[in-house]
Amino acid sequence: MLTPAAAVASRHIPSLLNLLSQCRSIQNLNQVHAHLLVDGSFSAAAVASQLLASYCALSAAAGHGALRLFDGIPDPDRFMYNTVIRACCNGSCPQEALRLHRGMLERGILPNEFTLPFVLKACTRARAWGQARAAHGVVVNLGFAGQVFVGNALVHSYASAGSLADSRRFFDEMVERNVVSWNSMIGGYAQEGDTREARALFGEMRRQGFVEDFTLVNLLLASSQEGNLEFGRLVHCQMLVSGSRVDLILGNALVDMYGKCGDLLMALRCFEMMPLKNVVSWTSMLCAWAKHGSVDAARDWFDQMPERKIVSWNAMISCYVQCGQCREALDLYNSMQSQGLAPDEVTLVAVLSACGQIGDLTFGKMVHL
């Protein structure tokens, strides 16, 4: 295998592309990039494109390096635009994705069916509803309305904006639908509290054979995140009516949903009915007690756990902090360390918060170091 310097010096395009695709860290990629700049091989379109793709794959939120690289390419093609728009959209800079899309149009480069779903996703994440409608116009003008991935992005964008009539109209017009299409539309109704429509559409989804276990899990997770107890109950009822087998993953999702939505009794009932439980099951129930403000019950639950992982310790420590029992939180942190468990970021945030509340700067400095 050629070294980075030898591969670059050879100017053999396949070797360069292979070298870039094998970079597993930003440090490696920066080294290869430096060799390319010195040698002049960066000017090859295929090399520039692969280099950009590698930066986007390795750096979160597309990374400043990827954006700087892209801005330095004199004539980026559609593939390059798609690569960096997707990375920005999936990262933490959806507004940057929209800026890039505008630049793409200004250059006369038309988006395709791979560009538009990420543009619409960026509009949704940035809550740029006017730009979402403009992107919808581009979809129609370019004839991509029949593409299922583009259609899904439109349904989700309008539903997220609260424009359920527009979302449903487009959903009904879709020639092809998949599980994502149904989930987006049902989730939109659930988000707006329209359980009647959500229930009706969920029933239709089942009749057409689209509902699988992972769909149910996703719907329960959506209910948990939104705190939408009514929709979570709807999904659970549909599971009971259809005779869905509640395995470990579905059981955990039910306990998590009821716990986070504040129905402690149902969370406990679902937990007790699970034939098989794991650390996630126990931790979800611990979090349910904590959310209910029952710190003593949460600690009893913690002490009964047959297995504890860092997430379990974090949940109990955070419970103490939220209830103002900061000394107990620090004692539990010491106990965790004595068992050889290393803290993570969640642990440290909770412990430092406890130190701040009781003014224990010495302990806080020790944790920080």
TrEMBL record:
<feature type="repeat" description="PPR">
    <location>
        <begin position="178"/>
        <end position="212"/>
    </location>
</feature>
<dbReference type="InterPro" id="IPR046960">
    <property type="entry name" value="PPR_At4g14850-like_plant"/>
</dbReference>
<protein>
    <submittedName>
        <fullName>Pentatricopeptide repeat-containing protein</fullName>
    </submittedName>
</protein>
<feature type="repeat" description="PPR">
    <location>
        <begin position="278"/>
        <end position="308"/>
    </location>
</feature>
<keyword id="KW-0677">Repeat</keyword>
<dbReference type="GO" id="GO:0009451">
    <property type="term" value="P:RNA modification"/>
</dbReference>
<dbReference type="Pfam" id="PF01535">
    <property type="entry name" value="PPR"/>
</dbReference>
<dbReference type="InterPro" id="IPR002885">
    <property type="entry name" value="PPR_rpt"/>
</dbReference>
<feature type="repeat" description="PPR">
    <location>
        <begin position="309"/>
        <end position="343"/>
    </location>
</feature>
<keyword id="KW-0809">Transit peptide</keyword>
<dbReference type="InterPro" id="IPR011990">
    <property type="entry name" value="TPR-like_helical_dom_sf"/>
</dbReference>
<dbReference type="Pfam" id="PF13041">
    <property type="entry name" value="PPR_2"/>
</dbReference>
<dbReference type="GO" id="GO:0003723">
    <property type="term" value="F:RNA binding"/>
</dbReference>
<feature type="repeat" description="PPR">
    <location>
        <begin position="77"/>
        <end position="111"/>
    </location>
</feature>
